Protein backbone atom coordinates (compact mmCIF):
# COMPACT_ATOMS: atom_id res chain seq x y z
CA UNK A 1 0.00 0.00 0.00
CA UNK A 2 2.80 2.39 0.94
CA UNK A 3 4.67 1.58 -2.28
CA UNK A 4 1.59 2.47 -4.34
CA UNK A 5 1.21 5.77 -2.49
CA UNK A 6 4.90 6.69 -2.97
CA UNK A 7 4.74 5.76 -6.65
CA UNK A 8 1.63 7.90 -7.17
CA UNK A 9 3.20 10.81 -5.35
CA UNK A 10 6.30 10.60 -7.56
CA UNK A 11 4.17 10.59 -10.71
CA UNK A 12 2.21 13.65 -9.54
CA UNK A 13 5.41 15.49 -8.66
CA UNK A 14 6.89 14.66 -12.06
CA UNK A 15 3.77 15.94 -13.83
CA UNK A 16 3.88 19.20 -11.88
CA UNK A 17 7.54 19.72 -12.78
CA UNK A 18 6.89 18.97 -16.45
CA UNK A 19 3.90 21.35 -16.48
CA UNK A 20 5.95 24.26 -15.16
CA UNK A 21 8.84 23.51 -17.52
CA UNK A 22 6.49 23.42 -20.49
CA UNK A 23 4.63 26.63 -19.66
CA UNK A 24 7.70 28.62 -18.58
CA UNK A 25 5.86 29.62 -15.42
CA UNK A 26 8.03 29.80 -12.32
CA UNK A 27 7.04 27.47 -9.52
CA UNK A 28 7.87 30.14 -6.93
CA UNK A 29 8.33 33.76 -7.87
CA UNK A 30 10.71 35.66 -5.63
CA UNK A 31 10.17 39.37 -5.15
CA UNK A 32 12.49 41.52 -7.21
CA UNK A 33 15.08 43.05 -4.97
CA UNK A 34 16.63 46.24 -6.33
CA UNK A 35 20.35 46.06 -6.94
CA UNK A 36 22.98 48.26 -5.36
CA UNK A 37 23.36 50.39 -8.49
CA UNK A 38 19.61 51.12 -8.59
CA UNK A 39 19.60 52.20 -4.96
CA UNK A 40 22.67 54.41 -5.48
CA UNK A 41 21.17 56.12 -8.52
CA UNK A 42 17.54 56.38 -7.40
CA UNK A 43 17.90 56.41 -3.63
CA UNK A 44 17.41 59.37 -1.34
CA UNK A 45 20.60 60.26 0.55
CA UNK A 46 20.33 60.77 4.32
CA UNK A 47 22.66 60.57 7.27
CA UNK A 48 22.51 57.43 9.35
CA UNK A 49 24.11 56.15 12.54
CA UNK A 50 25.50 52.67 13.10
CA UNK A 51 23.70 51.29 16.18
CA UNK A 52 25.08 47.76 16.00
CA UNK A 53 26.66 45.07 13.88
CA UNK A 54 25.26 41.58 13.32
CA UNK A 55 26.90 38.40 12.07
CA UNK A 56 25.19 35.49 10.36
CA UNK A 57 25.72 31.87 11.28
CA UNK A 58 29.23 30.62 10.58
CA UNK A 59 30.11 33.71 8.56
CA UNK A 60 31.76 35.40 11.54
CA UNK A 61 33.84 37.76 9.43
CA UNK A 62 30.83 39.04 7.45
CA UNK A 63 29.29 41.92 9.35
CA UNK A 64 25.87 43.37 8.64
CA UNK A 65 25.59 46.94 9.95
CA UNK A 66 22.43 47.92 11.82
CA UNK A 67 21.65 51.51 10.85
CA UNK A 68 19.25 54.09 12.27
CA UNK A 69 18.18 56.86 9.92
CA UNK A 70 15.32 59.29 9.47
CA UNK A 71 13.38 59.64 6.22
CA UNK A 72 12.59 63.14 4.89
CA UNK A 73 9.02 62.54 6.16
CA UNK A 74 10.38 62.19 9.70
CA UNK A 75 10.01 58.42 10.06
CA UNK A 76 12.82 56.99 12.21
CA UNK A 77 13.95 53.57 10.98
CA UNK A 78 16.37 51.06 12.46
CA UNK A 79 17.21 48.39 9.91
CA UNK A 80 19.86 45.76 9.26
CA UNK A 81 21.69 46.19 5.98
CA UNK A 82 21.31 43.29 3.54
CA UNK A 83 24.90 43.73 2.34
CA UNK A 84 27.78 42.59 4.50
CA UNK A 85 31.22 44.01 5.06
CA UNK A 86 34.35 42.05 5.88
CA UNK A 87 36.46 42.40 8.95
CA UNK A 88 36.64 45.43 11.19
CA UNK A 89 34.12 47.61 9.47
CA UNK A 90 31.64 49.87 11.19
CA UNK A 91 31.70 51.02 14.79
CA UNK A 92 28.72 51.77 16.98
CA UNK A 93 27.90 55.50 16.84
CA UNK A 94 29.64 56.00 13.49
CA UNK A 95 27.89 58.41 11.10
CA UNK A 96 27.36 57.05 7.57
CA UNK A 97 25.62 58.09 4.37
CA UNK A 98 22.57 55.96 3.63
CA UNK A 99 20.61 55.80 0.38
CA UNK A 100 17.15 54.26 0.35
CA UNK A 101 14.28 53.88 -2.06
CA UNK A 102 11.34 56.14 -1.13
CA UNK A 103 8.68 53.46 -1.61
CA UNK A 104 10.73 50.72 0.05
CA UNK A 105 13.03 52.16 2.74
CA UNK A 106 14.02 48.63 3.79
CA UNK A 107 16.03 48.51 0.54
CA UNK A 108 18.88 50.73 1.61
CA UNK A 109 22.63 50.76 1.31
CA UNK A 110 25.43 52.27 3.31
CA UNK A 111 27.44 54.31 0.83
CA UNK A 112 31.10 53.41 0.95
CA UNK A 113 34.28 53.06 -1.06
CA UNK A 114 33.93 53.96 -4.70
CA UNK A 115 30.14 54.37 -4.68
CA UNK A 116 30.58 58.08 -5.42
CA UNK A 117 31.84 57.13 -8.91
CA UNK A 118 28.53 55.51 -9.80
Task: Describe the structure concisely.
The protein has about 120 residues and is α+β, with helices and mostly antiparallel strands.
Would you give an account of this structure?
The chain has 118 residues and is α+β, with helices and mostly antiparallel strands. It has two domains: 1-30; 36-117, Beta Barrel (OB fold (Dihydrolipoamide Acetyltransferase, E2P)). It has two helices and six strands; from the N terminus they run H-H-E-E-E-E-E-E. Strand 1 (44-56) and strand 2 (59-70) form a beta hairpin. The longest helix is centred in the N-terminal third of the chain and has 22 residues, at 2-23.
Largest sheet: 6 strands, antiparallel
Number of helices: 2
Counting structural domains, the number is 2
Mean pLDDT: 75
How would the blueprint of this fold be written?
Elements lengths: L1 H22 L12 H7 L1 E13 L2 E12 L5 E5 L4 E2 L8 E6 L7 E3 L8
Antiparallel strand pairs: 1-2, 1-5, 2-3, 2-4, 5-6
What labels describe this entry?
single chain; 118 residues; OB fold (Dihydrolipoamide Acetyltransferase, E2P); 2 domains; 6-stranded antiparallel β-sheet; 6 strands; DUF3592 domain-containing protein
Amino acid sequence: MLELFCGSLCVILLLVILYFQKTDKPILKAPKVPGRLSVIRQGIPVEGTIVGVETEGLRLFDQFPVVRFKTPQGQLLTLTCRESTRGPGYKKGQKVEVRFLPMFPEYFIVVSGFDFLL
